[in-house]
Specification:
Number of strands: 0
Helix content: over 70%
Shape: flat
Oligomer: single chain
Radius of gyration: 25 Å
Distance between the termini: 46 Å
Largest sheet: none
Strand content: under 5%
Order of helices and strands: HHHH
Number of helices: 4
Length: 109
């Protein structure tokens, strides 16, 4: 009886974990998959497992409508600068918490 209860608990746990993984991964899959079809093929939705053949055309159209190189560079720049500033500030705060004695140091913040 104990073995059956253990199996049922594991089954329920893995079932919900599987649902969570599918709910997380499917939108990413669909985003990449939808990029391989034209807009007319996406409007008339028929579920297909294989990607389409319009990926290069879609990326060229995207590059023509937006300067994607500049957009990607701005994203990388903001991320690196933000991470660097956060790292510097947090290193200084960590040093201060470790080395200096101050009121309420023993309590959780």
């Amino acid at each position: 009886m104990n073995n059956r209860k253990h199996f049922l608990q594991k089954f329920i746990k893995y079932f919900f974990l599987s649902v969570a993984v599918i709910a997380t991964v499917y939108p990413l899959y669909w985003m990449v998959f939808a990029g391989t079809y034209g807009s007319s093929e996406l409007i008339h939705f028929v579920f297909r497992w294989l990607p389409g053949d319009k990926l290069a055309e879609n990326f060229k159209e995207l590059q023509d409508s937006f300067n994607m190189i500049k957009v990607i560079w701005n994203t990388v720049y903001v991320s690196v600068v933000g991470t660097t500033l956060s790292l510097i500030v947090n290193l200084m705060m960590g040093y201060a918490f470790a080395k200096y004695n101050f009121r309420f140091k023993k309590n959780d913040l």
